[in-house]
Amino acid sequence: MKAKKNGQAWRKLTASAGTAALIMGLLAGCSGNGGSNDGGNADPEASANGGASPAGQQTEAPKQEPYKMSIMLTSYNPEFMDPEGEIYKRLEERTNTDLTLTWVPSTTYSDKLSATVASGELPSAILVLDQKLPYIVNSVRSGMFWEIGPYLKDYPNLGRMSDIALNAISIDGKVYGLYRERDLARDGLMLRKDWLDNLGLKEPATIDEYYEVLKAFVQNDPDQNGKADTTGLAEQQVAAGWRAMLAWHGGPADWELKDGKASPAHLSPAYMDTMKFYKKLYDEKLINLDFAVVKDGKQLINGATAGSWIANLNDAQGIEESVKKVVPTGAITMVNALEGPADLRSPGGSGSYGLFMIPKTSVKTEEELKAVLNFFDKVSDEDMQNMLINGLEGRQFTLENGQYVKTTDSKMLVEYGMGDSTQLAVLRDKITTYGGPLVHMRNEMWQKNAEIAVSNPFQPFISDTYSERGSELNKIIEDARIKFIMGLIDEAGWNDAVAKWRKDGGDKIIEEYTQAYKAVNP
Amino acid sequence: MNEDLAITRPSAIAGSHRKQMWRRLARNRWLYLMLLPGIVYFILFKYVPMYGVLLAFKNYQPFLGFLKSEWVGMEHFSRFFGDPLFWMLLKNTFILATYNILFFFPLPIIVALLLNELRKEVYKRFIQTLIYIPHFMSWVVIVSIAYLFFTTEGGLVNEGIAAMGGEKIQFLLDPGWFRTFITAEVIWKETGWGTIIFLAALAGVDTQLYEAARMDGANRFRQLWHITLPAIRSTIIILLILRLGNFLDTGFEQIWLMLNSLNREVGEVFDTYVYSTGISQGQYSYSTAVGLFKSIVGLILVFAANQLAKRFGEEGIL
């Protein structure tokens, strides 16, 4: 009996499974048929036609056939560059390429980059924002990317690339990419000019003066609304102003050479001083007290509740525009660096932000490599640099009495991706700067900063331990720093965290950096 | 059915079994043919991609490709188990997962039972729809809502506490509150959605049983205890077993968004670790090894729970 029952159940099961399979099969069949009848037949023809006609024209023309290339890079704006637009067309024409740009929103770029590299299916050039990430270093060492250092001198524009910046992006002493030029030290202090004026204060020049300004911003009602509703400094979870504040207190930019050995910033006495300064700000409520959970601290100054913001001075223009929406009389001013116990200093970067790397998986021959390099050489021509950064006069902007006026026509804005086209630029040495007073002020500040920049002497070196465990180790230090500022741990607690950092791999990183440094500078 | 075969020799049994099987296959050939696409689907899309777990035993280099990457054996596993973070991750993950089972899992059952007791069908459906709407919100939205309510700077709850003369509480920073928040957010988001399966199971209960119970003088609580609960017991157990399979999946998005420097010691779990090492840092093989470890723990838990369920006389899923 039981066997029979089982048999029935079995049959029922197979029947229902069979039905399910049948339905799935039918569905699959339908879509399959649809695909092969409509798309399957139509597609090849279309592509054959579409492909043949331009190719035919090309062969008739005496010009060399455009090189088909693709680039993956970051986008900061909701709309990507219009491939039918004038700028795109000029770009393709000048560089003699058939260009495909893959824009990836900046917020997800690092994930997308890692996944793309893992898949091995790469575009002709790919923007890498941090070449010291372990998977990039490993890929370079396994031979995935072209070493382009030796080719640069053959190109009129690329030949101008600075040796210092190239050294900073090098891996194992060789250059594997074209850096995107940036000013050396771009961080500074941005303040509400109208608040300073209301309180009868000047821009601070020293850390102590800045502290007084913050105090006044919180206690003396700078927005004159009769309420104590203002914050001094806006900060956020991933610190925006820390590096600058540390340098102003006399600290290094990430790493320094001390007694012939590599030494990280958090071992310097200045680090402790800076933490104590922030702790004072926290205790006296001069900083937003929930900074440790705030994702975007800039919103506080954008929304006119905070009086200052320490970050890339590039932010100033945007902040002023946002503030004016809330307080029409609002204005922003800036200070390039504050004087502390040491000389005036500013935290230096590498002189670039990100580099374009050229994978051997997609660019197979030297010939092709030269075509890709040619692209970047041509976009570094003076007019191309200006086109990518400012747009075209008469389309993206007009000059009225020498004043730069950006267009409001959305079609024109999309032509240069609302400004995303700048992401393509490598060299920026022939740019005409347009813009309001804040933009000029920013450039001036950057120039001043470049003279007082402290840089990280270990930038070009690679520590395997850092590659593997660096992000976990950084968290130990950053978490302890925030806890110290908030008064949850004292100096002994901080020292425990540093000891843990050393034990979990920090000491090895110091050793590896020191060795790498000594190998080059005996 | 086959009693006569019991006395024949083993080989004959095997032989005739085989023959029978073929006969059955032949008889139901169309059914099997229809089953085929389903089987092929599973093999092609579920089993074949499993070779990817081999990455955990290699040092995957995209340029060298899958086959040419070097074999490293258990190196990634020993690095993971030897990592100072391992015990912290394990502890955090287990505690959060246990909280989830203890405090979240029973709630949809209770809510479903309560809803089942409602008389007005329209009212019941209205409530049901209302409570499962949060399921469709993304974690970003929910964490933002939590932030708006509980931050110390102008957060609704803290302003309320301050207005009543109390001291503001660092809900979002204090590690002591972290697990409460994670579990509470899950409860808020998923309870309503979780009731759906239980309500479906409840709808299948034979109404005659209730009538008979009423005739015997059982009150509503007795009916619930003796009829409703036993009726959905197997559903509860199956869902529990399935939940255990994902025991270590604490949900990446929510925790990632709630993490900050002060609660990391209780908040960092396997999922967030895999993200930061695997995706952000591109340590592909290492993160595959961590992921594989998680899956194996899940598989063990499913088998264990299934055995346990069988021992208590339930059917289980395997």
Automatic annotation (TrEMBL), chain A:
The keyword Protease does not apply. The keyword Lipoprotein applies. Residues 33-66 are annotated as: Disordered. It comes from the Bacteria. This is Extracellular solute-binding protein. PROSITE patterns: PROKAR_LIPOPROTEIN. Pfam families: SBP_bac_1. Keywords: Cell membrane, Lipoprotein, Membrane, Palmitate, Signal. Residues 1-28 form the signal peptide.
